[in-house]
Amino acid sequence: MDVSLKDKVAVITGAAQGLGAALARRLADEGCQLALFDLKDEAVQATADETRKATGQPVSAFAGDVTSEDDVRTLFTQTVETYGRIDLLVANAAILIAEPIDQANAAKWKAVMDVNLYGQFLTFKYACAHMKQQQSGAIVQINSKSGKKGSAANSAYAASKFGGVGLVQSVALEMAPYGVRVNAVCPGNLLDSPLWTDPEKGLFTQYFKAGKVPGAENLEDVKAHYVNQVPLRRGCTYEDIGNVVTFLASDKASYMTGQAINVTGGQEMR
Ligand SMILES: NC(=O)c1ccc[n+]([C@@H]2O[C@H](COP(=O)([O-])OP(=O)(O)OC[C@H]3O[C@@H](n4cnc5c(N)ncnc54)[C@H](O)[C@@H]3O)[C@@H](O)[C@H]2O)c1
């Protein structure tokens, strides 16, 4: 199947590392010109430099915060000034702060909602303003299986991701008359990503220390516990998500809007 995105202009938020950086490389390989956005100034610049060198595609980096309307407005204005248009938004930036509900810090709970939901609203707002004028475009929101099913001791993240599905469905209805499609991808656990593997802050370490996996004697036992929850018996990979993002961004998905697609190895089916 040809899903090439030759010469499409894509904005990716949260592109300094992890899935966002992997999607930058994948979309550049598919022919996209890129505007990468992240809080981490030096890291997003480094990702842009690496992606440009590896693929020969034009790649710009912008430092900013998805919760700042000024930063997001500037991102989209400068992207249009640089490339002349915006064909694709990959709304990827998110944070996860997991705390039991009775011990949750209210400011941290709100910060998760701010980045993961309000930040998405802002990027959707400015992407849609440009796409409405162009009468074309696609938005792909990076959601989670936690956008379909609750997540214990992780209520802010799940609530923000459930909210993301509502945002996608609503904006899909609103933008359909303008030829703009809006969909979400819901990854399963990306067990090789820094979110899980970081030796200090990663979820394997956190869950091991918290005794969340009964009987686990080391980090490998914690990982095996999460692999065993997946019917296809492996963690989700960046390539799995890149395949679906590329498809949803392309004309091959021209009859799909308002969907939240599970890419979970069968772990989530609704
Ligand atoms: N890692 C997983 O297992 C997993 C599973 C399902 C869904 N997801 C989703 O995939 C996406 C990427 O996750 P990841 O694992 O690559 O995370 P990550 O923490 O490695 O990367 C997230 C990036 O977003 C940036 N960011 C955070 N707050 C920001 C803000 N306010 N403004 C701008 N940039 C900001 C960070 O600096 C970072 O570079 C997220 O939407 C996440 O919810 C991840």
Description of the structure:
This protein is of the alpha/beta class and 270 residues long. It folds into two domains: 9-188 and 237-263, 3-Layer(aba) Sandwich (Rossmann fold); 190-229, no CATH class. It has helices spanning 18-29, 41-55, 69-83, 106-134, 155-175, 194-197, 203-209, 219-227, 238-249, and strands spanning 9-13, 33-38, 59-63, 88-91, 137-142, 180-187, 260-263. Strands 3-2-1-4-5-6-7 form a seven-stranded parallel sheet, sandwiched between helices. Helix 1 packs parallel to helix 2, helix 1 packs across helix 9 and helix 7 (203-209) packs across helix 8 (219-227). The longest helix has 29 residues, at 106-134. It is globular. The mean pLDDT is 97. Bound molecules: nicotinamide-adenine-dinucleotide.
Q: What labels would you give this structure?
A:
7-stranded parallel β-sheet, alpha/beta, 270 residues, single chain, Rossmann fold, binds nicotinamide-adenine-dinucleotide
Question: TL;DR of this structure?
Answer:
The protein has helices at 18-29, 41-55, 69-83, 106-134, 155-175, 194-197, 203-209, 219-227, 238-249; strands spanning 9-13, 33-38, 59-63, 88-91, 137-142, 180-187, 260-263. The chain has 270 residues and is of the alpha/beta class.
List the helices and strands and how they pair.
Elements: E1 9-13, H1 18-29, E2 33-38, H2 41-55, E3 59-63, H3 69-83, E4 88-91, H4 106-134, E5 137-142, H5 155-175, E6 180-187, H6 194-197, H7 203-209, H8 219-227, H9 238-249, E7 260-263
Parallel strand pairs: 1-2, 1-4, 2-3, 4-5, 5-6, 6-7
Helix pairs in contact: 1-2, 1-9, 3-4, 4-5, 7-8
Bound molecules: nicotinamide-adenine-dinucleotide.
